[in-house]
Amino acid sequence: MAFSKEAYRELEDIVGERHISNDPAFLDSYAFQWLAELVRPNFSHYMPRPVAVIMPACTEEVQRIIKLCNKYRVKAKPISTGWYHWAAPLKEDEETLQIDLRRMNRILEIDERNRYAVVEPYVICAQLQAEVMKLGLNINIIGAGASTSIVASACAYAGMGPSSFWMGNNSDNLLGMEWVTPEGEIIRTGSLGSGNGWFCGEGPGPSVRGICRGWVGSRGGLGVYTKCAIKLAHWPGPTEYQVKGTLPGYRLPIQENFRVYTLAAPTWDAWADIYYKIYDNEIGYIFHRQYALAGADLGPALWLTYIDPEKTLNDVEEAVKRKDIQDLTEELRISFQFIMAGRSIREIELQDKILDQILKETGGWKVQRYCEKDMAEFTNTYMQRLGHKHMNFVWVGGYLGSWMQTGTPDWVKGYVPVAIKGLYRDAAGGNLVQCGGDALMGNGSSIAGGGNMGLEQFVSYDPADNASVAAGTQHMRDAIVDAVANGFPPGKEAMYLQVGESDEQIWNALRRTPQPLAFHFQRKIKEAFDPNNVGDRMYATLPSEGKP
Amino acid sequence: MALEDYRADALRCTRCAYCKWIPFDLIKSWRFSKGCPSVEYNHFHSYSAGGRLVTALSLMDGRSTVTEAVKESVFKCQMCGNCDVTCKMCRYDMWPIEALHELRFRLVDQGHGLAQHQPVMKGFRSLSNMLNKPKSKRGDWAEGLDLKRLSKHKSKLLFHAGCQYSHDPDLREAVRNAAELLKKAGVDFAILGADESCCGGRAYHMGYKADYQAAAERNLKIWADAGVETVVTPCADCYHTFKRLYPESGSSVAVIHMVELIDRLLKQGKISFTKALPMRVTYHDPCYLGRQGEPYVAWKGKEKKIFGQAVVYDPPRPRYNGAKGVYQPPRDVLMAIPGLELVEMERNREAAWCCGAGGGVREAYPEYSMWTASERLEEAKSVGADALASACPWCEKNFADAATRNGTKIKIVDIIELVYQAL
Questions:
Q1: Chain A partners of B13 at a C-beta cutoff of 8 Å?
Q2: Could you say which of 1.10.150, 1.10.1060, 3.40.50, 1.25.40 is the CATH number of the domain covering B1-113?
Q3: Cβ-Cβ contacts under 8 Å, B63 against chain A
Q4: Fewest Cβ atoms nearer than 10 Å: which of A1, A117, B308, B407?
Q5: Which residue has the higher pLDDT, A158 or A265?
Q6: CATH 3.30.300 domain span(s) along chain A
Q7: What is the DSSP letter of A124?
């Protein structure tokens, strides 16, 4: 049954005329998505247009919308804050209704005593953090930054961030969620499912783990998450995010019980040792290799330009020629950002002593220039809220992530030289930004307490230049070849490329993963919850082929 | 520049949504975290700067046509410039507010201007003001003040009252006080009186560039003939037009806002306060004095690439990211008034929420305009202010109308009035 005027009218009855549109230009604003040009024919920046975009105000409206999608056999694709090409419809021949959740934007509850908050899908990290900081609490802000939806990161992704080291992933911190299944049933998970409130994600009631998230998250492919409870962490900092200075380089003063450092190591082996020792000694609050995103060859020139409001990117060209910047560039080759928070002055002093000892044992050091007041306060601003994450795109507006393999630091350091060599090679022709082979950014940990982490190669290309876009796509293909040739599985780039591939190509890739059975299991889940195939293929499955 | 010149901006937009919020570092609460009135009220992505860039691209590519929905999404925006500030937090190669202007120019050129704007534009063309008031009444505000007229006296300093102050009896006292204050301080200035014309800025923001251009040329000729070297205006809209737009039309006249001049006169000791005003006041940064009030920097150049693909400009392009707006002078003035307590709203300076009056919205979408103003009044109330002060008659008018409509008790005052009362 095709999407008809009658279907549109029925949807309109649910949300009102003002909250649904099928105007072609409006639909294009949803079809237009970051990364599309890398995988779409003729470098098109548009994913397929949805048949309409609709904006429900509550769970009941979402449920009614989903039931109509089942009735008319139209795919349902939710979007909240919306990033990535897979947030849009995926196939031209699949009629898809885009469900924009931005009207569901309330913080429903902050339970200070039990340390959780209940939010709707369009509550962003910066909003919730501002509110809970007033209570001496904090949230893990995912690597994609302050502008992202908490519900999306907790329910539909893994939700890793620089503070995951201390606070855990958002998928770990998920204490219960309200899920409108692809069939239109409302399921409340964890203790919420048994009427006992939001305090526990594991029950009594259906567990949140595994069912929806599966491999890496359902990413809009398995119904709509309409509320969730997220665990709150201790925040020993100020109750208001009181930044100083002039944009864009705002500065958050560093409290007496905080330390903000950029640490460097002489070798990648020493770097891994520092990581392990930090884990082992349980120090630190935020742990991230942030500034590397600008590329090891250009990073210091860029960041010291950025924090000066009088300067522009033109100044980077001159800055890289300066001897002091060149020396700093060498000093920062193998470095990362590290913020420690003490619950008392004595505790932060102890952490400081431990860190000094770690650096002594490993040959690491604090990078003096980045620990000076201006840069340290900027680092504090940047890392605590991640309000500058769009710096990912600073060079020219296009960035793609390759590698992003997670494992132990020793495992990660294994792919570092391969990734560095690959980017130097692929950027040599001038169609990618030549910022150095090492633009490897990543979280200090992808699980609470540390031990597991990953680095993502930041590859910048010009979305307005087809030759540059083609170079970006080629880099992703090269990265897969490099990975396989060196004994690593394909990384983030494979996820990007799959958006433009056929079902058969994707299945072939899934069959080669270490645990293809997982995708057969996910098929079972999809069959159970989505008999009419209303969700799209972002919830990855493998066809049965006689497998369980 | 033409709309096509911003094609690359559209292609390089990453849909990051920064344009919908205030700078994230400045967020202090859920309630006052939003930055774009248009997308907040209308919800669809098309009502954000990022969405409008896609609309521009889609129209240029022939993927869509100008429908009523498209027109509304393009024009239901105050052009407040919050998106321009937040986009440039992390980008040096995006110029959202300029692109949105070009989109409006394109629609108007193609005959897709809003019907609601036509009476205003008709008045602009025939009566030289944006309020459809008789031209002959423009100088009435100065009656009895014995001010020099530029038609009779040469003067290096022109006081330009602006349409709203000239024609709105509710705002007249402020502009009369401004003139009296200048006289008291011994400032030698003249006015144009009934010969004063609209600056053209609001026509520009509505998309009528040719009409704006004609107004600019007319005003610049009058100024040149009279030997005007500096223009002072109490209107933020006029200030922006003279300061940022006129130089592109060849102006080299210095421009200063009345509040900047008051600040200077206070600091030079030419005026001083003698009376206390015991009240708690919050200051609303007008968009065209604050984040869009940065001085014009001449630039003609082109994009070039460094490090393979990184985009820069040859020569370096002025940034206009809101960092150099007029923020401190009004605050210094208010803080100098004895007994007055200045309290800041959460969204201030470059992150200020718009009053709702700009971009032709007050004229075309009054409900939305009032909603936008009401949001700001709620913010002012949340900091316990007795009064909301501003330095723009359009802001004040919109706030006053919203306060009347909502029964909000907070006083809406012009900073000039406060200064005058405290002298």
A1: 32, 397
A2: 1.10.1060
A3: 24-25, 28, 46
A4: B407
A5: A265
A6: 396-500
A7: B
B343 — pLDDT class (breaks 50, 70, 90)? very high
Which residues in chain B are contacts of A46 at CB distance < 8 A? Answer: 63
* B contact test, residue of A19, A23, A85, A383 with most B CBs within 10 A: A23
User: How far is residue A482's CA from residue B396's CA, in Å, rounded to a whole number?
Assistant: 63
The CATH 3.30.43.10 portion of chain A extends over 5-100
Cα torsion at A403, A404, A407, A409 (round to 10°)?
Answer: 90
Closest-CA residue in chain B for A18? B42
Residues of chain B numbered 159-218 and touching chain A (CB < 8 Å):
none
d(CA A121, CA A102): 7
Q: Can you give the pLDDT at residue A548?
A: 52
Start-end of H helices in B61-162 = 68-75, 82-87, 96-109, 118-127
- Comparing CA positions, the residue from A305, A309, A321 lying closest to residue B318 is A309
List all residues of chain B from 80 to 139 with a beta carbon under 8 Å from chain A. 85, 88-94
Q: In chain B, which residue's Cα lies nearest the Cα of A53?
A: B44
Is the domain spanning A107-234 CATH 2.50.20.10? The answer is: no
Cβ–Cβ below 8 Å for A83 and B16: yes
Which has more confidence, A448 or A241? Answer: A241
How far is residue A404's CA from residue B168's CA, in Å, rounded to a whole number?
62
- Answer yes or no: CATH 3.40.109 is held by domain A396-500: no
Q: Find chain B residues with C-beta within 8 A of A123's C-beta.
A: 30
CA distance A272 to chain B (A): 30
Of the two residues A513 and B277, the one the predictor is more confident about is B277
- pLDDT tens track for B24-45: 999 999 999 999 999 999 999 9
What average pLDDT does range A422-434 have in this prediction?
98
pLDDT of residue A1: 56
In this structure, CATH architecture of domain A5-100: 2-Layer Sandwich (3.30)
User: pTM of the full predicted structure?
Assistant: 0.97
Tell me, what's the pLDDT at A211?
A: 75
| Helices B393-406 and B172-184: angle between axes, nearest 10 degrees | 140
List the single residue in A241, A313, A427 with the smallest CB-CB distance to B28. Answer: A241
3-state helix, strand, coil in chain A (%, to 5): 40, 15, 40
B62 touching A (Cβ < 8 Å) = no
Position A320, amino acid: V
- Looking at A52-207, which runs of residues are DSSP E strands? 52-54, 75-79, 96-100, 107-111, 116-119, 137-138, 174-180, 186-188
Residue of A18, A26, A466 to mutate, testing the B interface (most B Cβ within 10 Å of its Cβ) = A26
Instruction: Count CB neighbours of B298 within 10 A.
Output: 7
CB contacts < 8 Å between A and B, how many? 230
C-beta atoms of B12 and A396 within 8 A: yes
Domain positions in chain B = 1-113, 116-262
Least confident of A197-211, A223-237, B304-318: A197-211
* Interface with B, mutate which of A247, A298, A314, A496 (most B CBs under 10 A): A247
Q: What is the DSSP letter of B241?
A: I
Cis geometry, peptide bond prior to residue A204 (ω within 30 degrees of 0):
yes
- Taking CA B321 as the corner, what is the angle to CA B317 and CA B327, rounded to the nearest 5 degrees? 130
Using one digit for the tens of pLDDT, what is the confidence trace for B230-281? 999 999 999 999 999 999 999 999 999 999 999 999 999 999 999 999 999 9
DSSP H helical ranges for B96-171: 96-109, 118-127, 163-167
Does B70 sit within 8 Å of A241, measured CB to CB?
Answer: no
- Asked if CATH classification 3.40.50.1860 holds for the domain at B116-262, the reply, yes or no, is yes
B85 contacts on A by Cβ (under 8 Å): 247
